[in-house]
Amino acid sequence: MTEAFYIAALIALGATVMVITRLNVVHALLYLVVSLLAVAVVFYTLGAAFAAALEVIVYAGAIMVLFVFVVMMLNMGPGHVNQERRWLSPAVWSGPMMLAAVLLGDMVYLLAGGNIHAERAVAAEGVGVALYGPYLLAVELASMLLLGALVGAYHVGRDDGAGEE
Asked: 0.85 cut: is pTM over it?
């Protein structure tokens, strides 16, 4: 159990560093998905299975779809089709695939061993009380930050027609 925690934590740390250092947005998004999945494994090893499921459903699912829409919105035009084909080559997927394979092995090890202790499990009510109790301000600030980033990305990427004659 402790080994699985440290493996998932190292993958989350490594994938997050890759998100920050990638110049290509699509590459960064691939590593961000791996990072979010690794954080879900960390939650699971700490006994918060509900928080892990929320991490996968809300962040790795819904928020990543939002980010993909923003990338699609910013990369408009026929000249970007060949660039997107190069971005989605198998070489791009090799890093996130290797990290995801290690995470999959980590989860299989955890689920096969059944090492989750019931006394360490966190109920869904405890997650809700924590999120909307002492951490309410942090949750609201994070949601406002995401909304501001989306509006900013829209304004940066929109075509006003300026410069056209």
From this structure: no
